[in-house]
Amino acid sequence: MTVQPVPERLTLRPPDVVMRLARMGAAFPTRLSFTRSLVRRMGRERWSMSRPIWAIDADGVGRAAYRVATPHGIFGLAAFSQNLTPTARTDRVIAEAWDASFALTVGEATPDVLDRLAAQVPLQEAGRFSADELVLSRANRSVRLFEHVVERLAAGRQPDAWRLAEVGYLMRTTAVYGNGKFGIADRPRLHDGPVLEHPFQAEMLTVYLIRHFTLDLADHMAARRSGGRAVPLDRALRRGLGIGNATGLGMAPFLVGHPQLVHRWFLARETAIARVRALPTATPATRARFAAVLARAHAHVARWRTDNPGLRGRLDGLGRELASVALPDGERPWHRLMATVEATGSLDLQELVASLILEPHGDGVDDLEGTMASPEAVVTDPTMPIGRLRALIDQAYGWALGYDFARPDAQHLFWYASEEKLEPRLGERWTEPGAKLETRIGVAREVQALRRALEGQPDASVAAFLLAHPEHRHWVARVQSLASLDYAEIRDNLLDRSCLPIDILRCKLAFFGASRFDPKSDRWVRVTLFQGAPLADEFGHADADDWAFAATPA
Amino acid sequence: MHVSLNEIATTVERAARGAGATAGVDTEAGAAATWLEARGLPALDPLAAALKHGPARGLVLDDGRVALADASCAFHAGTLIDLAVARLRSGAGGLKVTDARDPLFLVAAAERFARTGLALTIAWDGAEVRFDAAGALALHGAVLVPASDVNVDVRVAGPPPRAAATLAATALDRRWRDAIARGVDVDPATWTRLRDFARRTYVPASALSRSRGAGAEVDDSA
Lengths: 554, 222
Description:
The structure holds 2 protein chains of 2 kinds. Chain A has 21 helices and 11 strands. Chain A is an alpha+beta fold. Among the domains of chain A are: 34-247, no CATH class; 386-482, no CATH class. In chain A, α14 runs antiparallel to α15. The longest helix of chain A is centred in the middle third of the chain and has 26 residues, at 201-226. In chain B, strands 2-3-7-4-5-6-8 form a 7-stranded mixed sheet. Chain B has a two-stranded antiparallel sheet with strand order 1-9. Chain B is α+β, with helices and mostly antiparallel strands. Chain B has one domain (2-206). At the A-B interface, α5, α7, β9, α19 and α20 of A face β1, α1, α2, α4 and α6 of B.
């Protein structure tokens, strides 16, 4: 697909402000996030969903199939469910069994397809798949909440709304694999048609369908347990449940490894913010919508559960700051509101308000969701003279040249792939083995090394330099390909002792649409996806796109 | 064994790194191998055979020639095509690569320049690969015969050979679309060899590293 640049003259927040870890670690989902754009699309194109196969017993063991009809083709979700023993249940990538496992299929997941996939999908990474499978995933129950819901429904009562809101999901996914992993379809296959071509749309559709599976499973197990007394889960409660996700370090290498894509994501978001800031006035309707979503965000922050002391303190502060946020009267109110929070507010407040001001302006910003894909790779420009490359580094990578890597703390961390399921991990360079095999994530350090190597070189072509210095090949291509892309690089030293991987995770998850970030350490986080999103039979409703910072019961 | 194109790209990238390829060279080897295999052209078998030798060291340009010392072009294709393009665009003439293996990798690396209108010919013993000005590719002669210790000429394309192409752009495009839709079959022994070299880039797990991975060790169901 061709991605068109955004031909606008707007004042965007500069990359030295936007692409810093601390700010990325304060990111919030926006209406351009992938869950939101998928749900809008499902509504706009009137996708329909059904459940043609449900063969699950009273203990939740069995298989099911969901069917998604789009104007461009049929997709299926194959679901395999078991009743895992508590000792086998872990959210780690290195786990080997899960409560449920899933595959998104091209075409309907018929009984024959389920038969074929039953031998593979529950094995996850140990299985082999075909290009007819688009996404592979698995999930574990949130055991106490799941049991509470089933028990209450079986007794003819609704579950405790507060407990539902507190957790936010019945199951959480622990991996969602796409793009050719384990033999499934390559991403270019998705680009072949106009259905799931946007970034991570196939993955988000899978997660959306898993959400329905978890709700259906709870209803089903309650009905089978009750002997006729059971009630189905109330619609409002169903809508208030999303899907949990446990995510670890893998997202950080992804962002560094896909810089053009990262640039597209940030450029779309920052362009949207700049468009709204440039509006001369606010209409009564946009003011009302903003006030409503601001109130919802306030409630959302107040009920955001985390045991992480650092985040807990920040959320308490954010709640207090939100109490004084109001859209000013007069000209350019959106810009003046942002300028005020930028001058006086925390990073959390700035990023939250930046997200909130987009909410009333779908007509003005939603077109940007079509600009968030990038098929590009970094490549060399072999004819560029060395002098020009030096100047390019000095202009575009000045942020990288100031770190002092002679200081041990500046490269305290190293990132690597573990032999164990190839799990991305983080080591401490001065005390752990393996640093020689580190993943290429230290952009600042490597660009500095390249800059030093270029010093004193004759002004020949880059191609001649790289013949003698193949060790710099990636970094030359990177600088040449990214120098004009403001938002391609995380402008921090990811090897520094102070680097917090959860900042990177939160940023990527916010682009996905994840909310309620709950860091369990510096290295992994739990989030919720699709909480408050319309159910499959609600796409046509007037409020189908109005679920940002979904309200939860008081 | 049936694999996806992304598996080829990532496995070859890792294997090349495990064989000593530097950052960037490894990625390009993965991309080139994917490009070739998706078009039914041999890449994984020759690459797997070349892994134990790894890339050549200390390459120099001497009078328009680079001697590869029988190293595989899989490790040098991007660098050599860059050099050829830089020379051609500066008017210095083409590039001769001597004592080379697996010249088809040069074709994969040249494709991005061909798409920008640089009509190139890459020729070696009885084989000629020609991009036209529109970037369309035609393979002539013994292009599919395993090639080692060959001298390769990278130059601006002249008139097309009289004989019909062994493989033309339409057939190659059809194969590419089929590979996108279905993935490709690879030899299991070759794949195992690639994975063995890829494994050299992974850090063995330890109790310490495991404890520092993502996620909780025990049942942490909320």
